[in-house]
Amino acid sequence: KGFTALIFDWGIIFAVIGFTIWMNDWIVYLISVWIIGAFQYAIGESLFHEASHFNLFKTKKLNDYLEWVYAVPFFVDMNQYRTEHLDHHYKMNTKVDHIVRDYEAHGLNNPKKNLFWMWFIKPIIGYAGLFYLRFAIQLNPLKSSIKFAIFWIPIVSIFWYFDVLHILAMYWFIPFLWSFASFFYWAEITEHYNTK
Predict the structure, then answer these.
(1) What is the pTM of this model?
(2) φ, ψ of residue 80 in degrees (nearest 5)
């Protein structure tokens, strides 16, 4: 099932990119950004989360080895994430749990919070992307950046060589930092808020 889900989700992303380039319409592009981001989220959060619990594939090794298709493209190191995530499960709502710090940073603990602002405006205007970047930087030690460099330098170089860096920016990084990050933010603030 893990391979089927990965192939399906990556296939949808590539199909949407191809269709949007073919349509060459800004409204189609805006819609595609959110569709791509939704499937990025399916890969980089949902499937990745299952792999972090060794549930995506039958063998534990596959769950780790294939981080190159569901973690590294999203600037997350499986080992680092698993350590933090297990702290979250076993020490929920303590100082060790990153969710406690995140909710404070989001303003969810403020008694005068504006829920419309927090839910709809804040993520859409870029806060979610900045939050995700902060999450990725804080989560990963410098040694993880070697993995990210091994993955991204060849990809960026190929797009640069063929003079299509704008395609990479428009169809990976904008959806990643806008819609994927918004889905990530929305999930973060709904999954455990006001739970004990």
Answers:
(1) 0.87
(2) -65, -45
